[in-house]
User: Fold Endonuclease from Rhizobium leguminosarum bv. viciae.
Amino acid sequence: MRDTIFCVFSVLTTLVLATISLRYITDFYLLSFFYSFQVHLAAAGAVASVAALLVKRHWYGLLTLAISVLLAVHGIVMMREFVEPSVEESRPALFRLMSFNIENDNFANGPDIADMVIASGADVVNILEAEPLLSELPRLLKTYPYYIGCGVGMEQCDTLVLSKRPLIEPRIRNLGLLWRNRLTISTIDFDGQKVNFLAAHLTKPYYDEFHGLEVWDLAEVIPTLSGPLVLAGDFNTSILAPDVQYLMRTQGLGTASLEPATWPIRAGAFGIPIDHIFTRAPLRLKSVRRIENGFGSNHFGLMAEFVVDP
Assistant:
């Protein structure tokens, strides 16, 4: 009986570890979901290995435990690779940004979300799957008179960017081949300091090769914009995904020391960050936090503060 239990634990652990280890061989799109959970799955593998060893002492249990620990540690190292140096708390923020995928059928919570946005104090608001806010636009525009999306620049209401300051040369373009108008590009002048804003909504990574094509498009757009830059939105995958790692490295993007988990809602802090706020020097993140109330969405929103280095 003990041999059977040990065998079951070992087989399941081996399958999990083999799946996430394939990232070192291929970035096949169907496995991207598992790559995003590398730290979680490796930790589960370590727990299962310990459980197997408690049932029966065997060298294979020690082997799977060692591999689990190595995969978990490397996952943490990869997440830390793009962390920017912390900013002094006393340093004033140049602006605040909110980024939130509110879910396109979340109409019942539209008024509450609009109330939250107005009271947030954010200078720029990036709303994805924004259809529930379409009826709330008249009162949102009293606080945020400048916007793009939801009828301005696109007929659809997937992306809505609201700003308290004028949007300089706002434009919308497609990402990849699957969905239209999922990238907005604009510039905002904060008392003489211009900052480029990119709001992106990427496809789920297991939809064929579309996610990789969208990342490729972002990698072509970003170099055309000079100066401070922020890229925010719903990537539908964590920073551990190979294509997102490629984007971060090639474009010199940075992130916060600890990205807040934004999905799934029920997992809370034990979920994964699939909504991101990335910056390019000289722009830096001073802070980023999760909006704890999901307002009926399947994502948590993010609120961030920024500074610009001399």
Observations:
- The chain has eight helices and twelve strands.
- Helices lie at 2-21, 32-36, 38-55, 59-80, 110-119, 137-143, 210-221, 242-251.
- The domain at 95-308 is CATH 3.60.10.10 (Deoxyribonuclease I; Chain A).
- The first strand starts at residue 95 and ends at 101.
